Q: What sequence folds into this?
């Protein structure tokens, strides 16, 4: 596998103002060091307020870090600057999948227009080329070309999730980032979405970084696990190594909690 992303010395510090009789709250994330390989699936786990979602937003550039560098597809970016509208390389190489796909879809416009928006902002394709790419992407995620003309209310939850995936991959990114992408889905749709992501990874060579509290999905899907606590990466490694031989107290706590919910015969 080839490295598609390397994060170096990523730091973010946020201070909430002091309230009456309370000290000001300071949350510091980092310094973060990590790398992602082509086609690799990386899961980020940890308790609430560990900094997982914040890290994901900084990776895609929706929140600027205080310092640090992100190297994407051999291009270096200052993590303290959000991507400018005139420079699309970073936003094209790494894309976000939203947790609630229905809330991310404008009910007043068609699927075709929803998928055309990132193309209009980031490419120089003409109308015919855009429509062809949109239809091909819909087929790629298991939908029909005719879904181009559908509105949100005409789609099932599973189809809406596929539209969200189509929007994420239409610019042919190298990395997809998702914060709890399976939490809002019922088990059958969740299984379909997991299988679809695995299929797209195989076909497109995508790397996938996702945050999840569902360690069953993490164990099934991830090649590598990153464990966070209080804004720090406290442990990382291959998935089976983390699950079988956790080293850090936080990792042990998370794994033991997961194992207590799983029938013992499946752990052997």
A:
């Amino acid at each position: 596998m080839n490295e598609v992303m390397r994060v170096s010395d990523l730091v973010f510090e946020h201070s909430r103002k002091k309230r009456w009789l309370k000290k000001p709250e300071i949350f510091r994330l980092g310094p973060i060091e990590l790398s992602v390989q082509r086609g690799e699936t990386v899961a980020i786990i940890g308790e609430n307020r560990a900094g997982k979602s914040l890290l994901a937003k900084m990776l895609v550039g929706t929140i600027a870090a205080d310092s640090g560098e992100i190297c994407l597809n051999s291009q270096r970016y200052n993590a303290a600057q959000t991507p400018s509208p005139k420079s699309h390389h970073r936003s094209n190489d790494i894309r976000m999948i939203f947790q609630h796909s229905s809330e991310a879809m404008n009910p007043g416009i068609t699927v075709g227009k929803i998928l055309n928006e990132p193309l209009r902002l980031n490419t120089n394709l003409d109308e015919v080329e855009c429509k062809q790419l949109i239809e091909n992407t819909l087929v790629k995620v298991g939908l029909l070309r005719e879904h181009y003309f559908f509105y949100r209310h005409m789609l099932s939850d599973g189809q809406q999730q596929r539209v969200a995936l189509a929007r994420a991959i239409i610019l042919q990114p190298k990395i997809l980032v998702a914060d709890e992408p399976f939490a809002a889905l019922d088990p059958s749709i969740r299984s379909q979405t997991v299988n679809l992501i695995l299929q797209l990874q195989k076909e497109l060579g995508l790397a996938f970084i996702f945050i999840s509290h569902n360690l069953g999905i993490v164990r099934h899907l991830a090649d590598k696990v990153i464990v966070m606590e209080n804004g720090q990466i406290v442990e990382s490694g291959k998935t089976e190594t983390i699950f079988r031989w956790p080293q850090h107290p936080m990792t042990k706590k998370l794994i033991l909690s997961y194992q207590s919910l799983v029938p013992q015969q499946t752990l052997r």
Summary: The longest strand covers residues 3-15. The longest helix spans residues 187-204.
